[in-house]
Structures are given as structure tokens and as C-alpha cells.
Amino acid sequence: MSCQIRPLWPPFVAGIVLGLVVLLTFVLVGNGMGSSGAFARVATEIGLQIAPEATRENGYLGSMAQGNPLAAWIVLAAVGILIGGILASISSGRFRVKVDRGSGRIGVGTRLALALAGGVLSGFGSRLAAGCTSGVGLSNTAMLGVAGFVFLIAFFVAGLLISLFMRRVW
Amino acid sequence: MDYGMAGTALATGLLFGFVLEQAGFGSPCKLTAQFRLTDWSVFKVMFTAIVVAAVGILLLQINNTFGSQGFYVAEMYLWGTILGGLLIGVGFAIGGYCPGTSLVGLGSGRIDGFVFMLGMVLGVWGFAAVYDTSLIQTVMTTAQASARTVPEFFGVSPWLVVAAMVLMLIGGFAVGRALERRSNGVYSAEDITEGRAPGESDELGRDLGREATSASRQSEAT
After folding, report:
1. pTM for the whole thing?
2. Which of A131, A96, A133, A14 is nearest to B21 (CA)?
3. Alpha carbon of B61: minimum distance to chain A alpha carbons (Å)
4. A103 → closest Cβ in B13, B145, B195
5. Taking the domains of chain B in order of start, what are their residue ranges?
6. Do A84 and B161 touch (CB under 8 A)?
7. What is the pLDDT of residues A104-152, one digit of tens each?
8. At what angle do helices A146-163 and B78-95 cross, to 10 degrees?
């Protein structure tokens, strides 16, 4: 590979910069950064394309069905996160198109099935908690919110327990 | 939404994703290593960021700078938050990402990140399908917390809460460092890019760490 792989930022440095980014978001927008809301918006928009009546009549999606999803702040922020990931990985020589199977102990099909299943649970869970690791775990906790602390405890407990059964994957 | 708001959304999102990738959080392997307790980067980065942002927010609130008393804090419904946190934790352990990091995973070229995103759309539809049931309505609307923030909830100064978080941060760094030393160590940029476990030999069969150790042993013997 001609492009040299640059080292990762030390966790403490990355943490300080990430905290400043969250702080900047609060100052500019009045609330923190979020990610999962964008997927609720996109799910609504796709629903409007393939089943418009069912989507408008749905108790949850119906309230989001008004307005252009691209006008939603959270969708543009998610596009920004994607672009940020692209710029950082390309400029550091870490961009690789691949199915990431860790050290390769599982097949491509298994990995994609696990990724899909994890996404389904995450998408469902993010609607129950009205946010995800970014919006509740990071931004709400930075405001010392009760929700953030409760979310992080539940998130870590579940992750620690389930990963006991996932050791052979990575 | 005007162009200014669109600009802040793109710019702050871009910075957020850029930092996450630089921390190695596009890699599902590195992310889930937190739960295998072999790489504590997720805890270190997240908790440092929370403390830095919390201190900054408290400082801005002193004179209500930028109208910072109005920073948004969502109210909490206990069961929704716990169940949601559990499901996102399970999804993270199984799928290797959370919603934000799947975007970073895709941004660094990972197709499994995109598949995780497709899964999330399906998960939202699944939620919408059962939203009107009495079970989900009960979970979403009962057990509302009496306060939105921890200092309000316990009736203490926010600075006391931040001080406790700083102690947890220091403790977490110490425990993390000890456990990282017991395992093969943290995932480096090469490990997550080339798909290797830390300490594993590279494609030429060399293990730089072990080579250095054996070299120093040889020099000691002579």
C-alpha cells in the first residue's frame, strides 16, 4: 500500500477534542450532537415512497412525515459525520473498502448478517430511548442529564454481557 | 431551516465524525474490544469528552453566556431509556457499531457499516409497527424522572457531580490501563486497517514486539 497508515490519536487527546466539538455544537445549536434521529427521518422518507398512506397514518412515522427530511438538522449532521469519517480515513491512509471481519474468523455472510441484526436492535432501541450513544450517552450526559447516566449504565451492562457470547467473532 | 443552520449541521457533524475516525471508532473490532475489556479507548474517549463538555457547559452557564441556560436537556422516561440503552448495547456487541459509529465505519470504507445502517431503518419500521400497542405506550410514557438533571435529582451542586465524574474518569483510565496490559493491548491504526488482532504477526511472519524482546534476550545472553 503506497499510502502510509498514520497512527490513531491517543484516546485522551481524541476525548478532549470530541468534548470541545460537543461543546461547540451546544453553543451553535442549543443542543448536542445526535445520530439516530437521522435514521428515523430516513426511514420515514423511504416509507413515504413505498407505502405513503400507511406511513402517514402510522402513529410514530406520521408525525415525522411532514416536511422535507433534508431540511432536518439531524440528517445533515449525519451526512457531516459520514463526510468527516471519509476525510479522516483518507487523509490518514486508513480508508479501505471492505467487509470488516476483524481478524477474519467469520465469513462475509455471517458478518453482514450480524451487522444487520445489530442494526435492527439499535434502530428499535434508539426510538425507545429517544436517542443513541451520541445524543443521549454523550450529549445528554454532558448536560448532566439523568437520561444520559441511566442510558450509559444500561448500554455498558448489555454490551459486556452479550460480548461474552461474541468472543469467537472478532 | 436556513443556510446558516444547514452549515452548522454539516460542519459540527463533520468535526464529530472526523474525531471519531481519528480515535479508531470506524472499526467494529476496536469498538467491541471495549466490551471484551482488552481496549478501553471507547470509555477513555467518551468519558473524557463528557467531562470536557460538561465543564465547558457549566462555565458558560455561569453568566448565561450565549443563552446557555437554555441548552436542551430531554426529560427521561425510565423504562424507555433503560430498554433502549440495553438494546443499543446488545446491537453494539452483535453488530459492532452504534448509530453514529456506523456512519464513521461506512465513511472509512466498511460495507458492514452500511448494512448496520440498513438494519437501523428496519428497526425504526419495526418500532413504528408496534408503536400503538399498549406495551410500547406504557414503556414510553410511564416512570418519568422527577428531574431532568442529576444535580437537580439529588439536590446537589453540578460541580460536585462533575468532581465525581473526574474521579470515575481517573479510576477508569487506571483500571483500563491495567487490563490493557494483561491482554495483547490496544488496536493500532495498522491493526484496524489491515484486519489484525493486536500483537499478531504481520503478513511477513514478523512480530515486532516479540522480535525486540528476543533480540534483547540474545544481547543479554552474549
Report:
1. 0.91
2. A14
3. 11
4. B195
5. 24-74+156-193, 76-144
6. no
7. 889 999 999 999 999 999 999 999 999 999 999 999 999 999 999 999 9
8. 40
**Hey, what amino acid is at A109?**
G
3-state secondary structure of B40: coil
Q: Where are the domains of chain A?
A: 1-97, 103-170
Q: Which residue has the cell 463526510?
A: A83
Buried b (16+ CB within 10 A) or exposed e, A111-130: bbbbbbbbbbbbbbbbbbbb
Going by pLDDT thresholds of 50, 70 and 90, the confidence category of residue B217 is very low
> Does ipTM top 0.85?
yes
Q: Which of B16, B145, B25 is nearest to B76 (CA)?
A: B145
> Please, how many CA atoms are within 13 Å of residue B59, restricted to the half-sphere of its CB?
9
Q: Of A57, A58, A77, which is closest to residue A131 (Cα–Cα)?
A: A77
Residue B27 sits at the chain A interface (C-beta within 8 Å):
yes
Share of chain A above pLDDT 70, in %: 95
- CA torsion B198-A152-B93-B111 (nearest 10°) is -80
- What is the rounded distance in angstroms from the CA atom of residue A72 to the CA atom of residue B188? 36
